[in-house]
Amino acid sequence: MDLFTAEPELLPIPIEDGELYFMQQLPLPVDNAEVMQRLLDETAWKAETIFLFGREVAQPRLSAWYGAARYTYSGRTFEPLPFTPLQLEIKRAVEAASGRRFNSLLLNYYRNEQDSMGFHSDDEPELGPQPAIASVSFGDTRTFILKHKKQAKTVKLDLTDGSFLLMAGMLQHCWRHGINKERKPRGARINLTFRLI
Ligand SMILES: O=C(O)CCC(=O)C(=O)O
Ligand SMILES: [Fe+2]
């Protein structure tokens, strides 16, 4: 490979007790704005509910499951829809960039700065002991926050339009992650997490 045709690379982000890799722009056959618009239009978005202190409340974001395998998340089982052609293109791109395989996809749509995701680990037993999770973002930037489970350590990453973050190794075991609400106005953001069940 020469200097002028260098492939974009998935680069390690130094972190203890886990593995993180980042790529500023996942190489895709369509531009980010078109991917964003098609994901907004083609996804079967749902406002899932959770139980909070015995009351049923809507999650502060919309979401949808796609892929081959039934999945349990926050104590509930979801029946996935079949992958769309665009999702398969993105899956091919993350598999090529990471050298890993995925068969399942959770999409989250953060409509504005009020939408968020609580701190959690993607450590369901069906993902195996050291799951690789491929996270691709489109639209407005939001801050992805990691908090160590045993130490007072926090890592913050800005997940920008078209970026690709790979979580692997002991990361889900040792850290929680989430997306906080923000005070500053934010536009729409879609995040895709590919998993292997
Ligand atoms: O929106 C994000 O960047 C995080 C999504 C996430 O943690 C998940 O889908 O499990
Ligand atoms: Fe997660």
From TrEMBL:
InterPro entries: AlkB-like, AlkB-like_sf, ALKBH3, Oxoglu/Fe-dep_dioxygenase_dom
Signal peptide residues on this chain, from the entry's feature table: none
UniProt GO MF annotations: dioxygenase activity
Domain of life: Bacteria
Coiled-coil stretches: none
PROSITE patterns: FE2OG_OXY (PS51471)
GO BP terms: DNA alkylation repair
Alphabetical keyword list: Dioxygenase, Oxidoreductase
Residue span, Fe2OG dioxygenase domain: 101-197
PANTHER family: ALPHA-KETOGLUTARATE-DEPENDENT DIOXYGENASE ALKB HOMOLOG 3
Protein name as it appears in the record: Alpha-ketoglutarate-dependent dioxygenase AlkB
Source organism of this protein record: Pseudoduganella guangdongensis
